[in-house]
Write a structure and sequence with these properties.
With 124 residues, the protein is mainly α. The protein has helices at residues 16-23, 27-35, 53-67, 72-123, and strands at residues 42-43, 49-50.
Amino acid sequence: MTTRAAPDSAQGVYGISVAAELTGLDPQSLRLYERRGLLEPTRTPGGTRRYSADDLARLSRISDLLGAGLNLAGVAAVLELEADNADLQAHNRGLKADNRGLKADNARLEADNARLRARLDDAG
């Protein structure tokens, strides 16, 4: 018996009826959210929508925001801000890593400089 690895969370594997059932939403809502640009399921070569685990999580977030009283325009704004925030956090982590590397390089250069000054002082 061979075991299959679980699909990547971004891989579209669920049809619209399964996605609707898993999220507790109706298929019409899923189509509306797609038309409004709130999510973009993958499509088969024949045009059938395929929803991924990431899409299901996004649908859950959309439901939560609608339940909190936001309209679809508000939901779109929140999702965009959340995505921007995640991008900025990732960029900030990269900058912090770069900064740590630069500090280490600077410490090495300062040590080299101190050694060179000591040699010059000894020679002079």
